Amino acid sequence: MRPVENPESRPSTILIVDDRPANLELMATELEAHGYIAVVAQGGQEAIERARFVKPDLILMDVLMPAMDGFETSRRLKACDSTRDIPIIFMTALTDTAQKLTGFAAGAVDYVTKPLDGAEVLVRVQTHLTLSTLRQRLLAQNEQLQREICAHEQTQAALLRSNTELEQLAYVASHDMQEPLRMIASYLQLIEQRYTEKLDDDGREFIGYAVDGAKRMQALINDLLAYSHVGTKARPFVPVDCAAVVDTALQHLRVAIDECHARIECGLLPLVSGDTSQLVQLFQNLLANAIKFRGSASPAIRIDSEPCGADWCISVMDNGIGIDPEYHERIFVLFQRLHRRTQYPGTGIGLALCKKIVERHGGRIWVERAPTQGSVFRFVLPRINVDACT
Ligand code: ADP
User: Are strands 311-317 and 300-308 parallel, antiparallel or unpaired?
Assistant: First the structure.
C-alpha cells in the first residue's frame, strides 16, 4: 500500500503513543516499512510535547496508560490550537461501547482493536490521512473562497460608490449647464430675429447651425439628467399596472404616432412591482424608437407579455428597419448610435436609460430580430409581490 502524502507532498509522520516499548517498536517498524515516518512517545505527557514539536499528520494512541490515559491526552491535544486538527486513532483492547463513545467524545476519529492487525491499522491510518488531507484542502479552498468573496464585496462597494459619485456628477453638470445653454440659444435666436436684415445668407446660416447645436446640447443634457435620475430620484416600488403605464406613454407620444399613422396593438399586460414614472419612461423610449426607426411602411407595433419563471417578460415588437445582430449588445451602451444624426436624430442615451431602469427593477433587457421585419425588444420585470399589495 502506498503511503499517503500530505498536502506538502512529504511522507506522512505518525506519532505512536503507548506505555509499552515492545508495542511501540512493533508499530513503528510496521509503519516505517510502508514509507511513513514514525515518532514514538511512551506516555500522555510525552505525547503532548512531541505532538506540539513534531506536528504529526496522525496519532495512534493507546487508551490505558499510567499517569495520563489516552482519553485525557486526547482532550488536552484537542484543547490546543496547534494540535487540535491532528486525527487520533485509539488502539485499545476495550470492547465496551460506552468506553468507545468516551473516546470519540475526547476527539478520536477511529479505533483499532488490540491485539493489533498490522494490515487493518495501515488501512485505517491511510483512510484517515486521506480524509485529513481532503479536509485541509477543503479548509484552504474555503479560506480562498472567503478571501475572494471579501475582495468581490469590496470591489462591488467601490463600484457602487463610484457609480453614485458619477451619477451625482452627471446630475450636477447637466443641471448647471442647462442655464448657460438656454441663454446661448435664446440670445442667438434674438440676434437672428432682430438683426436678420443686417446679416447676409452666410450669417443667417451660421446662426441656424449654432441654434441647432444648442438645441441638441439641450436634448443631450435632458437625456443625461433623465439617466442620472434613475439612481438619484428613484422612488420605492409599488404595484404598477403596465396597461396604464403604456397608456400614459402613448399619450406622451400622441403627436409622433399621429404624424406617421402608427398602428399600436397591445395584448394583456400584467401588474408588476416597480417605479411608475421610470416604467413610463421605459415604454416611451422603446415606443419612440419603434416609431423613429421605421421603414418605408407605416409603423406597426405590438406590445405583449408572458410569464417567465417568477417574473414577467414584456415585448415591444416593431416592423422597422431592424438591427444587425452584431450590434444587439452595443446599442444598450451610453451614446452608442448606429446612424448619423442626419438620418435619425437622437442622443444615444434612450436604450442605456431603458437598461438602467430595467436593471434597477432586478430584470434584464435585450433585443432580437422580429420574425419577419424589424426588432423585438424584450425585458423582464418582477411579478407583483403579494405582500407589497397589502
Ligand atoms: P437614439 O435613439 O437616441 O439614437 P437609443 O439608445 O435609443 O439612442 O438607441 C441606440 C441605437 O439603437 C439607435 O441609434 C438605433 O441605431 C438603434 N435602435 C434603437 N431602437 C431601434 C429600433 N426599434 N429599430 C431599429 N434600431 C433601433
Answer: antiparallel
Where in the sequence is the domain holding 256, given as residue range(s)? 235-389
- CA-proximal residue: ligand 1, atom 14 (nearest): 337
On the question of pLDDT at 1 being above 60, the answer is no
3-state secondary structure of 92: strand
Q: Does any ligand 1 atom lie closer than 6 A to the CB of residue 332?
A: no
Q: Is the pTM of this model over 0.85?
A: no
Residues 225, 254, single domain; the answer is no
Q: Which amino acid is at 115?
A: P
Q: What is d(CA 303, CA 286) in angstroms, rounded to the nearest whole number? A: 10
Q: For residue 89, is it within any domain? A: yes
pLDDT class for 385, splitting at 50, 70, 90? low
- Number of helical (H) and strand (E) elements in the chain, helices listed first: 11, 12
Same domain as 260, residue 304: yes
320 and 268 within one domain: yes
DSSP class of 10: S
319 lines ligand 1 (CB under 6 A): no
Q: Is position 57 within any domain? A: yes
Instruction: Please tell me the total count of domains within the chain.
Output: 3
Same domain, yes or no: 175 and 317: no
| pLDDT tens figures, 28-75 | 999 999 999 999 999 999 999 999 999 999 999 999 999 899 999 999
pLDDT for 13 = 95
The preferred substitution site among 317, 341, 351 for testing ligand 1, maximizing ligand atoms within 8 Å of CB, is: 351
Q: Evaluate whether residue 273 is within a structural domain.
A: yes
For β-strands 375-382 and 365-369, DSSP reports them as antiparallel
The reply to whether 4 falls in a domain is no
